[in-house]
Amino acid sequence: MAPKCKTGCGKNAILKRPKTGDALCRECFFWAFETEVHNTVTAARLFRRGQYVAVAASGGKDSTVLAHVMKELNQRYDYGLRLVLLSIDEGITGYRDDSLETVKRNRDQYGIPLTVLSYEDLYGWTMDDIVKQVGLRNNCTFCGVFRRQALDRGAAQLGVDQIVTGHNADDIAETVVMNVLRGDIARLQRCTAISTGTEGSIPRSKPFKYTYEKEIVMYAYFKKLDYFSTECIYSPNAYRGYARAYLKDLEAIRATSIIDIIHSGESLAVRDAARLPTQGTCSRCQYISSQPVCKACVLLQGLNQGRPRLGIGKSSKVQERARETEGESGDRSEVDSATVTVGAG
Ligand SMILES: Nc1ncnc2c1ncn2[C@@H]1O[C@H](COP(=O)(O)OP(=O)(O)OP(=O)(O)O)[C@@H](O)[C@H]1O
């Protein structure tokens, strides 16, 4: 006989929650999942009434569930937010073009307007072109740096108050582990923050900070949400892949590993004497940067000069090389901005 739902609602349980081990029926799982996200949002005071919030939407499971839950909670608890979907088209044929079709369907299904910005318009390069130049080894560096900036530029053009992303508990625990292994104190200090944003930049929040990836997949499955599930064809970042595999092994032995690692990251204190980068603006594109020239401008300079490795490596060396070679042939090292807006419905 099927077990009964742990809540005592009388229905049969259809799943076992990875986070708590509770046997729940579909409706009680939805309620528990959404309520936990709502509790995270309210405990951290993520939003203020009247705010205009961009949901960074890739079409993947995390951001699709995020868009759905944001709309749901905004209505149920009357957050008073105006929502918009913001997507970055990295120019990856057979991957992002297909996932963007999913986001367009989500726009219609949820009635949330969508804005798409492309690397091609912003930087003059698609990821397909970048991979042709740099190969598959360092391409994730270009993609990550450009996407981060592209989201900020899109958010600034839209005039939103903040961006929310679908980063989940597993992503954050992986980042903690990666930063420990790399000895990256500056990132280690900020990677568990639910909301980031220094002066002059648009805040970014992670409402799924404490939400397990497995539960996001379950939620999407049982809600029958329309999402794109293929991995990037240019291979996920190898280093993160190792951190992920390590965490999965830990989780198999100790179910609470993910949350435990996040709590450890939150409790870490950085010595007063530790040297941390200070935030300024890029001398070329005026975007926020802890270096004289931001990483996106250096990477772009390298691409435009046919020296794709120029921006790879230690920051001090990268800055030196960028200065020495600035203005050499083919250099169009500043970032342009352009938007393609696709209205709702
Ligand atoms: N091309 C993009 N356009 C807009 N937002 C993006 C894009 N790629 C990633 N993001 C945002 O960054 C978050 C983390 O991205 P990541 O690449 O780790 O993908 P993921 O964990 O597979 O998430 P998802 O399932 O939403 O794709 C996403 O949930 C989304 O909010």
Automatic annotation (TrEMBL):
Residues 311-345 are annotated as: Disordered. GO terms for biological process: protein urmylation; tRNA wobble position uridine thiolation. The keyword tRNA processing applies. Pathway: tRNA modification; 5-methoxycarbonylmethyl-2-thiouridine-tRNA biosynthesis. One of its GO terms (cellular component) is mitochondrion. Residues 317-335 have a biased composition (Basic and acidic residues). Its main location: cytoplasm. Residues 280-310 form the Cytoplasmic tRNA 2-thiolation protein 1 C-terminal domain. Residues 53-244 form the tRNA(Ile)-lysidine/2-thiocytidine synthase N-terminal domain. This is Cytoplasmic tRNA 2-thiolation protein 1. It comes from Amphibalanus amphitrite. The gene is ctu1_1.
